[in-house]
Amino acid sequence: MNDISKKKVHYPIKEPLRQYLEEYSREISLPIAYEDLNHYENSISLYNDVGEDTLWETVFYSQSDMSEIHSALSSVYALLKTEGDIEVLEHLYVNRIDYCPFGNSKPFRIRVTNKFNDNYDYFYIKKADSSRIYGLELEHILSPNRISYIVDGNTIVEDHIAGIPGDVFIKDWLKDPQLNKIRLAKEFVKFNERSFVRLLGDMRSYNYVVDVTPDFDAVQYRIRAIDFDQQTYEGNKTMYLPQFFKDNNPIVEFVANLLDPKTIRQYQKEERVLIANRIKVSQYRLKDLSDCLENDTISLPEKVNQLKQELAEHFSDDSFLECNCMGDILKTRLYILMYDNRSILKGDGDKEFKLV
Questions:
Q1: DSSP 24
Q2: How much of the chain is in helix, strand and coil states, percent to nearest 5?
Q3: Is there a domain that residue 298 lies in?
Q4: What number of CA atoms fall less than 13 Å from residue 318's CA on the CB side?
Q5: Are residues 191 and 129 in the same domain?
Q6: Which of 104, 158, 159, 303 is most buried by its number of CB atoms within 10 A?
Q7: Does one domain contain both 229 and 304?
Q8: What is the pLDDT of residues 160-180, one digit of tens each?
């Protein structure tokens, strides 16, 4: 497998996407911008409970700026969680701001704490990038997960996605005797399928989390992407299949030992049907997003050419070769999904659903 791009190109938000964000209440005026947080005075490395470097830094601001910054961040949290209801701010305060100098978005992570019970929550402030926004929107529309985020200018604020980081889960949980092996294996197959259908790349183990939920008779698992920078960006189709990343090998082998090919195909088909139904429910929103994406640039020409050729070969469908951009490729990919599930995509009477 080819190496993933070392440094992804940053793509600014163009006017059609900006209008989409306003139409669907994602664009909101914020009291603080990403650039404001860059003016910290010093920082220290952040270590976890066992003394390992997390690669995050806790940053500190001047005494004169700190009060204003913390107040603005509390207001941002209220906008993200309660549509700006300031009553929630009475018992909340910002007690830590962390910064990650690695990655494409170079995020700030804000910890907000309840002063009555010390319960805390996180949210993130990052540099806005159009491909990441497309990734967040497609996750919201096509996956079983709802995504909360807001944008203002070149700043994006994202809610924290809770779960056990995939690399930690593989290391510490995969051999747990209490693990519900079949349900976990099924979920990884479905996660792999979701990623490939909506062309979300770079799902290495540290770019997703495992949400573990006790049920009345067993444990349920949901694997959720937490990094959306590689939405329809790479040219190699295997970049959109989590099963081909070597740090996922332990869970891939785990799945192969538990499920036979027939069962895997069944789970893949189940997930495609679910995605097809989500498309039907959100067809107008998806069309608006697709229109933006088809007229946008979120990858390099050589990557577009490589991906359309590889997908044309994979699906034995030359319609991919007519694509001119990543938006065209994704739309063609979704057409194939809908055609394969056309029996469930019937609207009223005999009118068949179409993404026009």
A1: T
A2: 50, 20, 35
A3: yes
A4: 0
A5: no
A6: 158
A7: yes
A8: 999 999 999 999 999 898 899
C-alpha 232/C-alpha 234 separation (Å) is 6
* Spatial separation of the C-alpha atoms in residues 138 and 201, rounded to whole Å: 13
> In angstroms, what CA-CA distances link 275 with 93, 209, 340?
39, 20, 12
Last residue of a domain, one of 136, 159, 182: 159
Distance CA 334, CA 276 (A): 9
From residue 76, give the alpha-carbon distance in Å to each of 89, 157, 274: 10, 8, 34
Averaged pLDDT, 242-268: 95
Q: What Å distances lie between residue 195 and 32, 201, 202, 300, CA to CA?
A: 33, 7, 9, 20
Q: Among 29, 162, 154, 19, which residue's Cα sits nearest to residue 83? A: 29
Nearest-5° Cα angle at 271, 268 to 277: 145
Per-residue pLDDT for 187 more than 80?
A: yes
CB 190 within 8 A of CB 271: yes
User: Per-residue confidence at 84, pLDDT binned at 50, 70, 90?
Assistant: low
> With the C-alpha atoms ordered 172, 178, 181, 187, is the resulting torsion angle positive or negative?
negative
Asked whether residue 41 is domain-assigned, the answer is yes
Same-domain pairing of 263 and 122? no
7 in a structural domain: no
What does 227-289 look like in DSSP terms, one character per residue?
Answer: --TTBT--S-GGGG-GGGSGGGHHHHHHHHHH--HHHHHHHHHHHHHHHHHHHHHTHHHHHHH
Is 76 found in the same domain as 224?
Answer: no
Residue numbers of the domain that contains 118: 15-159
In this structure, is residue 180 part of a structural domain? yes
Instruction: Compute how many other C-beta atoms are within 10 angstroms of the C-beta atom of residue 168.
Output: 14
The string of pLDDT tens digits covering residues 124-135 is: 999 999 999 999
Residues 102 and 115 in one domain: yes
* Bridge partners, 211 (sequence order): 222
Same-domain status, 194 and 139: no
